[in-house]
């Protein structure tokens, strides 16, 4: 519905505002429709795998190797479904301001090491090297360790997804003045063009909607960072790579703990 006609100035302005709102509603409905269609697809793919393999296994007659393969696919696809559902639940919690943080003192280097362990297998599949540059001190922040890990897992996951085989992904901790600390996740992957750089943090947005995923990851990540009184920035150059910067309030800086793996050698 559009409001037309010659009206006095204020009414003209009101009409323009209402027209703008109507356009926004159409646009946001379109975004929601696209989201529902992409999430349905995301849910259907693993379900099809689970259904296919469970039916095949029930029919019997396989050797232990084949049975193991089928079971491992079922288990992997189930994990994927749980991940998707958790992502949607997190998103909805954040929308309703219901995400509760369990705050403690968190050593950033430890969180990044745990993150790297979690994604190691995925990086290995593409022979991607993960490098941690922890800085020359132990940086402690006040945070929900699990939620912070979720932030870095998502960023490194994206970095792996959008990087070529045999490339390197760096996780860098830097001190920012005063009393702030920056974690950078830097890849040398496909990059993001300037046209889309502002949009990738929007919910549901994907540069290429056919590549899987929901477009919720960065929106969730940014909101978790903001709940920690932090900020997230993205710098990227098409075909050269992307750096995501997470800046957080620094609680304390301690002398670096010795690297036990190096000492042991
Ligand atoms: P999704 O879960 O669908 O990947 P995200 O919110 O995490 O959603 O990311 C949104 C979009 O931003 C991605 O679909 C991709 O187009 C782009 N993107 C995110 N991280 C990177 C990266 N490291 N390199 C290139 N493009 C990226």
From TrEMBL:
GO molecular function annotation: kinase activity
Domain of life: Bacteria
Primary enzyme class: transferase
Domain called Histidine kinase: residue spans: 38-252
EC number: 2.7.13.3
Membrane topology: Multi-pass membrane protein
Catalytic activity: ATP + protein L-histidine = ADP + protein N-phospho-L-histidine
Protein name, per record: histidine kinase
Shown segment, full-protein numbering: 201 to 465 of 465
């Amino acid at each position: 519905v559009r409001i037309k006609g010659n009206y006095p100035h204020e009414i003209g302005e009101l009409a323009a505002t209402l027209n703008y709102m109507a356009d926004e509603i159409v646009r946001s409905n379109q975004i929601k429709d696209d989201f529902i269609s992409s999430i349905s697809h995301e849910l259907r793919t693993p379900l099809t795998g689970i259904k296919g393999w469970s039916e095949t296994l029930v029919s019997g007659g396989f050797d232990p190797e084949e049975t193991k393969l089928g079971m491992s696919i079922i288990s992997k696809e189930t994990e994927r479904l749980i991940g998707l559902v958790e992502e949607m639940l997190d998103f909805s919690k954040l929308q309703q301001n219901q995400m509760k943080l369990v705050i403690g003192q968190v050593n950033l280097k430890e969180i990044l090491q745990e993150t790297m362990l979690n994604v190691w297998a995925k990086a290995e599949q593409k022979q991607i090297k993960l490098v941690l540059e922890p800085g020359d001190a132990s940086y402690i922040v006040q945070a929900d360790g699990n939620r912070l890990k979720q932030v870095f897992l998502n960023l490194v996951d994206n970095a792996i997804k959008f990087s070529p085989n045999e490339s390197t992904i760096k996780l860098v901790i830097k001190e920012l003045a005063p009393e702030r600390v920056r974690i950078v996740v830097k890849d040398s992957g496909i990059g993001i063009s300037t046209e889309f750089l502002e949009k990738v943090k929007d919910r549901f947005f994907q540069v290429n909607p056919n590549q899987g995923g929901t477009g919720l990851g960065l929106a969730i990540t940014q909101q978790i960072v903001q709940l920690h009184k932090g900020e997230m920035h993205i710098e990227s150059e098409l075909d050269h790579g992307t750096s995501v910067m997470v800046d957080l309030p620094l609680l304390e800086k301690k002398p670096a703990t010795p690297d036990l793996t190096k000492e042991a050698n």
